[in-house]
Design goal:
The protein is α+β, with helices and mostly antiparallel strands. About 35% of the residues lie in helices and about 30% in strands. It has one domain: 2-Layer Sandwich (Alpha-D-Glucose-1,6-Bisphosphate, Chain A, domain 4), CATH 3.30.530.20. The chain contains six helices and seven strands.
Length: about 180
């Protein structure tokens, strides 16, 4: 199995395929999707965890500086590197239901921090800016969070990187919300 639910697969695969990589000609899918079910929290607390710098710093080592109004710019503080770019914007903001924003710019300082080659950094800088969307479904005593990160071209280096990163970020989020503790670094 490819890790995508049938609903997710239909949303990322134009052919609506269900048999993994061989389902249609669009593989690799030009979108990444991670689903996290059964967070034992209320939707208000999850929203806070997605938007409050004090929370995001603890499980993601990233802070967002914005007013969370659609159209507002965002400044990222990603692992101590401040990233400001007028194209980093909030796309949608429906508190407790849906949040969407453009992904950060891949600045040279980030590449230095993580040891990216100059070639990798140039490849990332040349790719189109992606976006991430968080969908929150209130299920009473728990919530379902769906994370959709899309806008990638086939063979995207950024897609490869976020596909590895989102499971770590979401595990940290779930652990922090449900236990009050962070995962070991």
């Amino acid at each position: 199995m490819d890790g995508f639910s049938p609903r997710a697969r239909e949303s990322v695969c134009p052919g609506g395929g269900s048999s993994g990589a061989s389902c249609c000609s669009c593989w690799p899918w030009p979108q990444a999707l991670v689903r996290l079910h059964d967070l034992h929290q209320h939707h208000e607390r999850l929203w806070q965890a997605l938007t409050d710098p004090a929370f995001t710093r603890r499980y993601w080592n990233t802070e967002f500086h914005t007013d969370w109004t659609a159209g507002s710019t965002m400044t990222w503080d990603n692992h101590g590197i401040r990233i400001a770019d007028p194209e980093q914007v909030v796309l949608e903001s429906e508190p407790y239901r849906r949040l969407s924003y453009t992904w950060h710019t891949f600045v040279p300082e980030l590449g230095e921090k993580f040891g990216w080659s100059e070639e990798r950094r140039e490849t990332l800088a040349a790719e189109p800016r992606s976006k991430v969307t968080f969908e929150i479904e209130d299920l009473g005593q728990q919530v379902k969070l769906t994370v959709i990160h899309d806008g990638f071209e086939p063979g995207s280096t950024a897609l490869e990187m976020v596909s590895e990163g989102w499971p770590q970020v979401l595990s940290g989020l779930k652990t922090l919300l449900e236990t009050g503790e962070t995962l070991p670094a």
